[in-house]
UniProtKB/TrEMBL annotation:
It comes from Nesterenkonia flava. Its EC number is 1.2.1.-. This is NAD-dependent succinate-semialdehyde dehydrogenase. It is an enzyme of class 1 (oxidoreductase). Pfam families: Aldedh. Belongs to the aldehyde dehydrogenase family. The active site is at 262. Gene3D superfamilies: Aldehyde Dehydrogenase, Chain A, domain 1, Aldehyde Dehydrogenase, Chain A, domain 2. Keywords: Oxidoreductase. One of its GO terms (molecular function) is oxidoreductase activity. Residues 25-485 form the Aldehyde dehydrogenase domain. PANTHER family: SUCCINATE-SEMIALDEHYDE DEHYDROGENASE, MITOCHONDRIAL.
Protein backbone atom coordinates (compact mmCIF):
# COMPACT_ATOMS: atom_id res chain seq x y z
CA UNK A 1 0.00 0.00 0.00
CA UNK A 2 1.02 3.66 -0.36
CA UNK A 3 3.02 5.00 2.57
CA UNK A 4 1.15 7.73 4.53
CA UNK A 5 2.74 11.18 4.55
CA UNK A 6 2.74 11.12 8.36
CA UNK A 7 4.96 8.01 8.33
CA UNK A 8 7.41 9.74 6.02
CA UNK A 9 7.52 12.83 8.24
CA UNK A 10 8.01 10.83 11.44
CA UNK A 11 10.91 8.90 9.96
CA UNK A 12 12.65 12.00 8.63
CA UNK A 13 12.26 13.66 12.02
CA UNK A 14 13.84 10.67 13.77
CA UNK A 15 16.90 10.11 11.57
CA UNK A 16 20.22 11.61 12.82
CA UNK A 17 21.23 14.78 11.04
CA UNK A 18 24.63 15.57 12.54
CA UNK A 19 28.15 14.37 11.87
CA UNK A 20 29.20 11.12 13.55
CA UNK A 21 32.73 11.59 14.90
CA UNK A 22 34.45 9.55 17.61
CA UNK A 23 31.19 7.88 18.57
CA UNK A 24 29.35 11.18 19.09
CA UNK A 25 26.76 13.12 17.13
CA UNK A 26 27.78 16.75 16.66
CA UNK A 27 27.11 19.75 14.48
CA UNK A 28 29.61 20.94 11.91
CA UNK A 29 32.12 23.31 13.49
CA UNK A 30 31.08 26.15 11.23
CA UNK A 31 27.39 25.45 11.78
CA UNK A 32 26.81 24.81 8.09
CA UNK A 33 23.97 22.61 6.85
CA UNK A 34 22.95 21.25 3.46
CA UNK A 35 19.55 20.35 2.03
CA UNK A 36 18.51 16.77 1.31
CA UNK A 37 15.98 16.78 -1.53
CA UNK A 38 13.26 14.28 -2.40
CA UNK A 39 13.84 13.68 -6.15
CA UNK A 40 10.24 12.62 -6.66
CA UNK A 41 8.96 16.08 -5.74
CA UNK A 42 11.98 18.38 -5.84
CA UNK A 43 11.16 19.50 -2.29
CA UNK A 44 13.53 19.58 0.68
CA UNK A 45 13.20 16.59 3.00
CA UNK A 46 15.46 17.89 5.73
CA UNK A 47 18.83 19.50 6.43
CA UNK A 48 21.95 17.78 7.73
CA UNK A 49 25.27 19.02 9.08
CA UNK A 50 27.68 20.10 6.35
CA UNK A 51 31.27 19.38 7.37
CA UNK A 52 34.26 21.59 6.75
CA UNK A 53 37.94 20.68 6.80
CA UNK A 54 38.20 21.01 10.59
CA UNK A 55 35.47 18.39 10.96
CA UNK A 56 37.32 16.17 8.51
CA UNK A 57 40.51 16.44 10.57
CA UNK A 58 38.58 15.61 13.74
CA UNK A 59 37.22 12.47 12.11
CA UNK A 60 40.59 11.33 10.77
CA UNK A 61 42.33 11.94 14.09
CA UNK A 62 39.62 9.93 15.84
CA UNK A 63 40.21 7.07 13.41
CA UNK A 64 43.98 7.35 13.88
CA UNK A 65 43.67 7.25 17.66
CA UNK A 66 41.32 4.26 17.57
CA UNK A 67 43.41 2.23 15.11
CA UNK A 68 45.89 0.48 17.47
CA UNK A 69 43.20 -0.63 19.89
CA UNK A 70 40.85 -1.84 17.17
CA UNK A 71 43.58 -3.73 15.34
CA UNK A 72 44.13 -5.68 18.58
CA UNK A 73 40.46 -6.67 18.90
CA UNK A 74 40.19 -10.45 18.31
CA UNK A 75 38.75 -11.47 14.94
CA UNK A 76 35.81 -13.22 16.60
CA UNK A 77 34.81 -10.02 18.39
CA UNK A 78 34.97 -8.05 15.14
CA UNK A 79 32.87 -10.75 13.48
CA UNK A 80 30.30 -10.54 16.27
CA UNK A 81 30.00 -6.78 15.78
CA UNK A 82 29.29 -7.30 12.10
CA UNK A 83 26.71 -10.01 12.79
CA UNK A 84 24.93 -7.80 15.30
CA UNK A 85 24.85 -5.03 12.70
CA UNK A 86 23.46 -7.53 10.16
CA UNK A 87 20.67 -8.51 12.55
CA UNK A 88 19.85 -4.89 13.41
CA UNK A 89 19.61 -3.94 9.74
CA UNK A 90 17.01 -6.64 9.22
CA UNK A 91 15.12 -5.57 12.33
CA UNK A 92 14.98 -2.01 10.99
CA UNK A 93 14.53 -2.83 7.31
CA UNK A 94 11.20 -0.97 7.10
CA UNK A 95 12.77 2.29 8.24
CA UNK A 96 15.95 1.82 6.19
CA UNK A 97 14.04 1.02 2.99
CA UNK A 98 11.64 3.94 3.32
CA UNK A 99 14.45 6.33 4.16
CA UNK A 100 16.35 5.23 1.05
CA UNK A 101 13.30 5.67 -1.16
CA UNK A 102 12.68 9.17 0.17
CA UNK A 103 16.21 10.46 -0.35
CA UNK A 104 17.12 8.58 -3.53
CA UNK A 105 13.78 7.89 -5.21
CA UNK A 106 13.97 4.18 -6.00
CA UNK A 107 10.75 2.15 -5.63
CA UNK A 108 10.20 0.76 -2.17
CA UNK A 109 10.46 -2.84 -3.39
CA UNK A 110 13.94 -2.12 -4.76
CA UNK A 111 14.88 -0.33 -1.54
CA UNK A 112 14.00 -3.44 0.46
CA UNK A 113 16.17 -5.41 -1.93
CA UNK A 114 19.06 -3.07 -1.31
CA UNK A 115 18.69 -3.33 2.47
CA UNK A 116 18.99 -7.11 2.19
CA UNK A 117 21.94 -6.79 -0.18
CA UNK A 118 23.64 -4.22 2.04
CA UNK A 119 23.19 -6.28 5.19
CA UNK A 120 24.65 -9.32 3.46
CA UNK A 121 28.04 -7.58 3.21
CA UNK A 122 28.15 -7.47 6.99
CA UNK A 123 27.34 -11.16 7.29
CA UNK A 124 29.80 -12.11 4.55
CA UNK A 125 32.66 -10.17 6.08
CA UNK A 126 31.78 -11.35 9.58
CA UNK A 127 32.57 -14.80 8.24
CA UNK A 128 35.75 -13.58 6.52
CA UNK A 129 37.05 -11.87 9.68
CA UNK A 130 37.92 -15.21 11.27
CA UNK A 131 39.49 -16.59 8.08
CA UNK A 132 42.34 -14.12 7.64
CA UNK A 133 45.23 -16.41 6.86
CA UNK A 134 49.01 -16.14 6.78
CA UNK A 135 51.57 -18.83 6.05
CA UNK A 136 54.59 -20.67 7.42
CA UNK A 137 57.13 -22.34 5.18
CA UNK A 138 60.66 -23.60 5.01
CA UNK A 139 63.18 -21.54 3.03
CA UNK A 140 64.47 -23.33 -0.08
CA UNK A 141 67.93 -23.48 1.52
CA UNK A 142 66.52 -25.03 4.66
CA UNK A 143 68.32 -22.66 7.03
CA UNK A 144 65.38 -20.28 7.66
CA UNK A 145 61.64 -20.18 8.07
CA UNK A 146 59.24 -17.76 6.46
CA UNK A 147 56.37 -16.43 8.55
CA UNK A 148 53.78 -14.58 6.45
CA UNK A 149 51.37 -12.42 8.45
CA UNK A 150 48.36 -10.30 7.48
CA UNK A 151 47.88 -6.98 9.26
CA UNK A 152 45.27 -4.20 8.87
CA UNK A 153 46.39 -1.51 6.45
CA UNK A 154 45.34 1.22 8.91
CA UNK A 155 42.98 4.21 8.92
CA UNK A 156 40.93 4.23 5.72
CA UNK A 157 38.98 6.84 3.80
CA UNK A 158 35.76 5.55 2.25
CA UNK A 159 33.84 7.57 -0.34
CA UNK A 160 30.45 6.32 -1.54
CA UNK A 161 28.02 7.37 -4.32
CA UNK A 162 24.34 8.32 -4.23
CA UNK A 163 22.83 5.55 -6.35
CA UNK A 164 23.10 2.73 -3.77
CA UNK A 165 23.36 4.81 -0.59
CA UNK A 166 23.31 1.92 1.87
CA UNK A 167 24.97 -0.98 0.05
CA UNK A 168 27.97 1.01 -1.15
CA UNK A 169 28.65 1.93 2.47
CA UNK A 170 28.39 -1.58 3.89
CA UNK A 171 30.48 -2.95 1.01
CA UNK A 172 33.36 -0.80 2.29
CA UNK A 173 32.70 -0.70 6.04
CA UNK A 174 32.25 -4.49 6.21
CA UNK A 175 35.74 -5.50 5.05
CA UNK A 176 37.37 -2.58 6.88
CA UNK A 177 35.88 -3.71 10.19
CA UNK A 178 36.63 -7.37 9.47
CA UNK A 179 40.28 -6.57 8.75
CA UNK A 180 40.68 -4.36 11.82
CA UNK A 181 40.78 -0.98 10.09
CA UNK A 182 39.23 2.24 11.36
CA UNK A 183 37.65 4.58 8.84
CA UNK A 184 36.22 7.93 7.85
CA UNK A 185 33.29 7.54 5.47
CA UNK A 186 32.01 10.36 3.29
CA UNK A 187 28.59 9.56 1.81
CA UNK A 188 27.25 11.40 -1.21
CA UNK A 189 25.75 14.75 -0.24
CA UNK A 190 22.63 13.91 -2.27
CA UNK A 191 21.82 10.80 -0.17
CA UNK A 192 23.42 11.01 3.29
CA UNK A 193 20.50 9.82 5.43
CA UNK A 194 20.98 6.10 4.89
CA UNK A 195 24.57 6.23 6.13
CA UNK A 196 23.65 8.40 9.12
CA UNK A 197 20.99 5.84 10.06
CA UNK A 198 23.61 3.10 9.73
CA UNK A 199 25.92 4.89 12.17
CA UNK A 200 23.39 4.36 14.96
CA UNK A 201 23.21 0.67 14.06
CA UNK A 202 26.99 0.29 14.18
CA UNK A 203 27.18 1.98 17.56
CA UNK A 204 24.45 -0.27 18.92
CA UNK A 205 26.26 -3.28 17.46
CA UNK A 206 29.26 -2.51 19.65
CA UNK A 207 31.64 -0.83 17.21
CA UNK A 208 34.00 1.21 19.44
CA UNK A 209 34.12 5.01 19.36
CA UNK A 210 36.30 6.41 16.59
CA UNK A 211 36.34 3.20 14.55
CA UNK A 212 33.74 4.37 12.01
CA UNK A 213 33.28 8.11 11.51
CA UNK A 214 30.75 9.56 9.06
CA UNK A 215 31.23 13.01 7.60
CA UNK A 216 28.73 14.59 5.20
CA UNK A 217 29.97 17.55 3.20
CA UNK A 218 29.02 19.67 0.20
CA UNK A 219 32.69 20.54 -0.38
CA UNK A 220 34.14 17.07 -0.83
CA UNK A 221 37.33 18.19 -2.55
CA UNK A 222 38.18 20.76 0.13
CA UNK A 223 37.58 18.27 2.93
CA UNK A 224 38.93 15.03 1.52
CA UNK A 225 42.04 16.13 -0.38
CA UNK A 226 43.95 17.30 2.73
CA UNK A 227 43.05 14.04 4.49
CA UNK A 228 44.30 12.01 1.53
CA UNK A 229 47.54 13.99 1.36
CA UNK A 230 48.11 13.87 5.12
CA UNK A 231 49.83 10.50 5.20
CA UNK A 232 47.70 9.54 8.22
CA UNK A 233 45.18 7.57 6.20
CA UNK A 234 46.72 4.54 4.52
CA UNK A 235 43.85 3.41 2.32
CA UNK A 236 41.29 5.03 0.02
CA UNK A 237 38.25 3.13 -1.25
CA UNK A 238 36.21 5.15 -3.74
CA UNK A 239 33.11 4.45 -5.80
CA UNK A 240 32.20 7.10 -8.33
CA UNK A 241 33.06 8.55 -11.70
CA UNK A 242 36.27 7.79 -13.58
CA UNK A 243 37.08 11.50 -13.85
CA UNK A 244 37.01 11.98 -10.07
CA UNK A 245 38.78 8.66 -9.52
CA UNK A 246 41.73 9.79 -11.64
CA UNK A 247 42.11 12.96 -9.56
CA UNK A 248 42.01 10.94 -6.35
CA UNK A 249 44.68 8.56 -7.66
CA UNK A 250 46.96 11.54 -8.27
CA UNK A 251 46.42 12.69 -4.69
CA UNK A 252 47.04 9.19 -3.31
CA UNK A 253 50.34 8.97 -5.18
CA UNK A 254 51.95 11.51 -2.82
CA UNK A 255 52.10 8.98 0.02
CA UNK A 256 51.76 5.83 -2.13
CA UNK A 257 48.37 5.12 -0.59
CA UNK A 258 46.57 1.81 -1.08
CA UNK A 259 43.54 2.35 -3.32
CA UNK A 260 40.39 0.57 -4.43
CA UNK A 261 38.60 2.30 -7.28
CA UNK A 262 35.16 1.26 -8.51
CA UNK A 263 34.65 3.73 -11.34
CA UNK A 264 32.46 4.22 -14.39
CA UNK A 265 30.90 1.53 -16.52
CA UNK A 266 29.55 1.14 -20.03
CA UNK A 267 28.18 -2.38 -19.90
CA UNK A 268 27.12 -4.22 -23.02
CA UNK A 269 24.41 -6.87 -23.19
CA UNK A 270 24.76 -9.28 -26.10
CA UNK A 271 21.88 -11.45 -27.31
CA UNK A 272 22.72 -14.20 -29.81
CA UNK A 273 20.13 -15.68 -32.16
CA UNK A 274 20.06 -18.99 -30.26
CA UNK A 275 19.21 -17.30 -26.93
CA UNK A 276 15.93 -17.94 -25.14
CA UNK A 277 14.34 -14.59 -26.06
CA UNK A 278 11.99 -14.53 -23.07
CA UNK A 279 14.94 -14.98 -20.71
CA UNK A 280 17.01 -12.49 -22.68
CA UNK A 281 14.30 -9.83 -22.47
CA UNK A 282 13.82 -10.45 -18.75
CA UNK A 283 17.59 -10.29 -18.25
CA UNK A 284 17.79 -7.05 -20.22
CA UNK A 285 15.05 -5.56 -18.06
CA UNK A 286 17.01 -6.42 -14.92
CA UNK A 287 20.28 -5.17 -16.36
CA UNK A 288 18.71 -1.96 -17.66
CA UNK A 289 15.88 -1.03 -15.32
CA UNK A 290 17.33 -1.89 -11.90
CA UNK A 291 17.61 1.41 -10.03
CA UNK A 292 15.97 3.11 -13.06
CA UNK A 293 19.22 2.55 -14.94
CA UNK A 294 21.22 4.57 -12.41
CA UNK A 295 23.83 1.85 -11.87
CA UNK A 296 27.41 1.41 -13.04
CA UNK A 297 26.48 -2.15 -14.04
CA UNK A 298 23.46 -1.06 -16.12
CA UNK A 299 23.29 -2.31 -19.71
CA UNK A 300 24.16 0.87 -21.62
CA UNK A 301 24.61 -0.88 -24.97
CA UNK A 302 22.41 -3.75 -26.13
CA UNK A 303 23.67 -5.73 -29.12
CA UNK A 304 21.26 -8.26 -30.65
CA UNK A 305 21.98 -10.63 -33.53
CA UNK A 306 20.20 -9.31 -36.60
CA UNK A 307 17.87 -12.27 -37.15
CA UNK A 308 16.18 -11.70 -33.77
CA UNK A 309 16.83 -7.97 -33.25
CA UNK A 310 13.41 -6.75 -34.38
CA UNK A 311 11.51 -9.29 -32.28
CA UNK A 312 13.71 -8.66 -29.24
CA UNK A 313 13.25 -4.88 -29.53
CA UNK A 314 9.48 -5.26 -29.86
CA UNK A 315 9.22 -7.44 -26.76
CA UNK A 316 11.55 -5.19 -24.77
CA UNK A 317 9.59 -2.06 -25.68
CA UNK A 318 6.29 -3.76 -24.85
CA UNK A 319 7.44 -4.80 -21.38
CA UNK A 320 9.16 -1.51 -20.59
CA UNK A 321 6.05 0.31 -21.68
CA UNK A 322 4.08 -1.54 -19.00
CA UNK A 323 6.28 -0.24 -16.19
CA UNK A 324 4.54 2.15 -13.82
CA UNK A 325 6.42 5.40 -13.17
CA UNK A 326 5.89 7.39 -9.97
CA UNK A 327 6.97 8.13 -6.41
CA UNK A 328 8.70 5.12 -4.97
CA UNK A 329 6.42 5.08 -1.92
CA UNK A 330 3.29 4.52 -4.03
CA UNK A 331 1.90 1.01 -4.49
CA UNK A 332 2.86 -0.71 -7.73
CA UNK A 333 5.50 1.81 -8.83
CA UNK A 334 8.40 0.19 -10.69
CA UNK A 335 10.34 3.24 -11.91
CA UNK A 336 11.16 6.14 -9.64
CA UNK A 337 12.66 9.53 -10.48
CA UNK A 338 16.23 10.22 -11.52
CA UNK A 339 18.35 11.73 -8.78
CA UNK A 340 18.11 15.39 -9.86
CA UNK A 341 17.38 17.76 -12.74
CA UNK A 342 20.99 17.69 -13.94
CA UNK A 343 20.90 13.93 -14.43
CA UNK A 344 17.58 14.08 -16.24
CA UNK A 345 18.94 16.75 -18.57
CA UNK A 346 21.98 14.59 -19.33
CA UNK A 347 19.78 11.60 -20.21
CA UNK A 348 17.70 13.77 -22.55
CA UNK A 349 20.85 15.15 -24.19
CA UNK A 350 22.07 11.62 -24.93
CA UNK A 351 18.68 10.59 -26.35
CA UNK A 352 18.42 13.72 -28.50
CA UNK A 353 21.96 13.21 -29.80
CA UNK A 354 21.20 9.61 -30.75
CA UNK A 355 17.99 10.57 -32.55
CA UNK A 356 19.74 13.36 -34.44
CA UNK A 357 22.36 10.81 -35.48
CA UNK A 358 19.70 8.50 -36.91
CA UNK A 359 18.39 6.32 -34.06
CA UNK A 360 14.71 5.35 -33.99
CA UNK A 361 12.54 5.83 -30.89
CA UNK A 362 10.36 2.80 -30.14
CA UNK A 363 9.27 3.96 -26.70
CA UNK A 364 9.53 7.12 -24.61
CA UNK A 365 12.20 9.62 -25.50
CA UNK A 366 10.87 12.70 -23.68
CA UNK A 367 10.97 13.68 -19.98
CA UNK A 368 7.79 13.33 -17.97
CA UNK A 369 5.80 16.47 -17.18
CA UNK A 370 5.10 17.61 -13.62
CA UNK A 371 7.08 17.80 -10.41
CA UNK A 372 10.05 15.56 -9.67
CA UNK A 373 12.81 14.33 -11.94
CA UNK A 374 11.03 11.53 -13.78
CA UNK A 375 12.11 10.08 -17.11
CA UNK A 376 10.01 7.36 -18.77
CA UNK A 377 11.36 3.99 -19.90
CA UNK A 378 12.80 4.52 -23.38
CA UNK A 379 13.85 2.12 -26.14
CA UNK A 380 15.95 3.24 -29.11
CA UNK A 381 17.00 1.10 -32.07
CA UNK A 382 19.67 1.28 -34.79
CA UNK A 383 22.11 3.33 -32.75
CA UNK A 384 24.83 4.81 -35.00
CA UNK A 385 28.46 4.46 -33.93
CA UNK A 386 28.90 8.22 -33.54
CA UNK A 387 26.09 8.55 -30.98
CA UNK A 388 27.35 9.69 -27.58
CA UNK A 389 25.40 7.03 -25.70
CA UNK A 390 27.59 4.38 -27.35
CA UNK A 391 30.51 5.85 -25.35
CA UNK A 392 29.03 7.58 -22.29
CA UNK A 393 27.23 6.19 -19.25
CA UNK A 394 23.51 6.88 -19.59
CA UNK A 395 22.49 6.47 -15.92
CA UNK A 396 18.82 6.41 -16.84
CA UNK A 397 16.05 4.07 -18.11
CA UNK A 398 17.13 4.22 -21.75
CA UNK A 399 17.74 0.96 -23.67
CA UNK A 400 19.66 1.40 -26.95
CA UNK A 401 19.43 -1.68 -29.21
CA UNK A 402 21.87 -2.24 -32.09
CA UNK A 403 21.91 -5.27 -34.42
CA UNK A 404 25.04 -7.29 -35.24
CA UNK A 405 25.81 -10.15 -37.61
CA UNK A 406 28.75 -12.22 -36.34
CA UNK A 407 30.23 -13.21 -32.99
CA UNK A 408 33.48 -11.44 -33.87
CA UNK A 409 31.57 -8.25 -34.70
CA UNK A 410 29.79 -8.40 -31.35
CA UNK A 411 33.03 -8.85 -29.38
CA UNK A 412 34.64 -5.95 -31.21
CA UNK A 413 31.65 -3.71 -30.46
CA UNK A 414 31.58 -4.72 -26.77
CA UNK A 415 35.29 -3.93 -26.34
CA UNK A 416 35.05 -0.58 -28.16
CA UNK A 417 34.99 1.45 -24.94
CA UNK A 418 37.45 2.74 -22.38
CA UNK A 419 35.43 1.03 -19.64
CA UNK A 420 35.51 -2.56 -18.50
CA UNK A 421 33.26 -3.17 -15.51
CA UNK A 422 30.69 -5.76 -16.57
CA UNK A 423 29.06 -7.28 -19.63
CA UNK A 424 26.17 -9.71 -20.19
CA UNK A 425 25.86 -12.55 -22.71
CA UNK A 426 22.70 -14.48 -23.63
CA UNK A 427 23.12 -17.72 -25.55
CA UNK A 428 22.25 -21.42 -25.14
CA UNK A 429 25.60 -22.48 -26.63
CA UNK A 430 27.99 -23.16 -23.73
CA UNK A 431 31.07 -23.03 -25.94
CA UNK A 432 30.04 -19.66 -27.33
CA UNK A 433 29.25 -18.36 -23.83
CA UNK A 434 32.73 -19.24 -22.61
CA UNK A 435 34.44 -17.93 -25.76
CA UNK A 436 32.71 -14.57 -25.52
CA UNK A 437 33.08 -14.31 -21.74
CA UNK A 438 36.83 -14.79 -22.08
CA UNK A 439 37.13 -12.40 -25.03
CA UNK A 440 35.23 -9.41 -23.68
CA UNK A 441 37.28 -6.91 -21.68
CA UNK A 442 35.61 -6.55 -18.30
CA UNK A 443 36.08 -7.54 -14.68
CA UNK A 444 32.72 -9.34 -14.58
CA UNK A 445 30.51 -11.18 -17.06
CA UNK A 446 26.95 -12.39 -16.59
CA UNK A 447 25.93 -15.43 -18.61
CA UNK A 448 22.15 -15.63 -19.14
CA UNK A 449 21.56 -13.34 -16.18
CA UNK A 450 21.03 -9.61 -15.88
CA UNK A 451 22.44 -9.11 -12.37
CA UNK A 452 25.97 -10.14 -11.37
CA UNK A 453 26.44 -8.30 -8.06
CA UNK A 454 26.79 -10.62 -5.07
CA UNK A 455 28.55 -9.99 -1.73
CA UNK A 456 30.26 -13.39 -1.99
CA UNK A 457 31.77 -12.61 -5.42
CA UNK A 458 34.58 -10.18 -6.34
CA UNK A 459 33.07 -6.96 -7.74
CA UNK A 460 35.24 -4.65 -9.83
CA UNK A 461 36.47 -3.70 -13.27
CA UNK A 462 39.46 -3.20 -15.53
CA UNK A 463 40.60 -0.38 -17.83
CA UNK A 464 38.93 2.93 -16.87
CA UNK A 465 36.44 1.10 -14.63
CA UNK A 466 38.85 0.86 -11.75
CA UNK A 467 41.31 -1.00 -9.57
CA UNK A 468 40.86 -3.69 -6.94
CA UNK A 469 37.84 -5.75 -5.96
CA UNK A 470 35.05 -5.53 -3.39
CA UNK A 471 33.22 -8.52 -1.98
CA UNK A 472 34.16 -12.17 -2.17
CA UNK A 473 37.33 -13.58 -0.65
CA UNK A 474 39.40 -10.80 -2.20
CA UNK A 475 37.41 -7.93 -0.67
CA UNK A 476 39.06 -8.17 2.73
CA UNK A 477 42.53 -8.36 1.17
CA UNK A 478 42.10 -4.76 0.03
CA UNK A 479 42.30 -3.76 3.71
CA UNK A 480 45.22 -6.01 4.67
CA UNK A 481 48.98 -5.70 4.31
CA UNK A 482 51.21 -8.74 3.90
CA UNK A 483 54.22 -8.89 6.24
CA UNK A 484 57.04 -11.38 5.73
CA UNK A 485 59.11 -12.30 8.79
CA UNK A 486 62.30 -14.29 8.14
CA UNK A 487 63.53 -16.50 10.98
CA UNK A 488 67.11 -17.76 10.79
CA UNK A 489 67.91 -21.24 12.08
CA UNK A 490 71.33 -22.10 13.54
Amino acid sequence: MTIPASREADLIAAVPKQLFINGQWRDARGGRTLDVVDPSTGSVLTQVADAGIDDGWDALRAAEAAQPGFAAVPPRERANMLMRAFDLMHERKDDLALLMTLEMGKPLAEAYGEVNYAAEFFRHFAEEATRIRGNYQTAPTGNARFLIAKQPVGPSLLITPWNFPLAMGTRKIGPALAAGCTSVLKPAELTPLSMLALADILREAGVPDGVVNIVVTSTAGDVMEPLIRSGIARKLSFTGSTAVGKKLLEQCAEHVMRTSMELGGNAALVVFEDADLDKAVDGALMAKMRNSGEACTAANRIFVQRSVAEEFSRRLAQKMGEYRVGRGVEEGVQVGPLINATQREKVQELVDDAVRSGATVLLGGEPAAGEGYFYPPTVLTDIPEQARLRREEIFGPVAPVTPFDTEEEAITAVNDTEYGLTNYVFTQDLNRALRVAEAVESGMVGINQGVVSNPAAPFGGIKASGLGREGGETGIEEFLETKYIGIALE
